[in-house]
Amino acid sequence: VQLVESGGDLVQSGKSLRLSCVASGSEFSIDTMAWYRQGPGNQRDLVASTRSGTIPVYADSVKGRFTISRDAVKNTVFLDMNNLKPEDTAVYFCNALYYSDYQPGRKVAWGLGTLVTVSS
Prior knowledge:
Layout: E1 2-6, E2 10-12, E3 17-24, E4 28-38, E5 45-51, E6 57-58, E7 66-71, E8 76-81, E9 90-100, E10 106-110, E11 114-119
Parallel strand pairs: 2-11
Antiparallel strand pairs: 1-3, 3-8, 4-5, 4-9, 5-6, 7-8, 9-10, 9-11
C-alpha cells in the first residue's frame, strides 16, 4: 500500500486547512487510518485515528479543533484542521494499518508527509 498526502500549506494562526491522504495498491483492506505529526525537534505523535465502527481518537491538543474522516470507497482519509495555532506547525504523516490478500498479518504503511506551517 502506498499513501500520498496533500494539503499542507503556510497559513496564519486561526485559519483552517484540510489534509488528504489517498491509499493505493493491490488487493488490500484497510483496518485503521491515522494522522501523525512531527514538529521541529520533536518525536512523531498521533494526531487522530479512525477505524470503522469505532469512535475516532484525538490527541488532547487538537480535540475540538481537528476532525478526522474517511471515505472507505476511495481509500481516502481527511484531516480538517480549524483554529490552527503556531504549535500545530509540523510535518503531518498519514498512516494505515491494513491487511494484504497476498501476505498474512496486519501491516503498516506511512506516507512521506505534508508540511503545515502556522504563522502567528
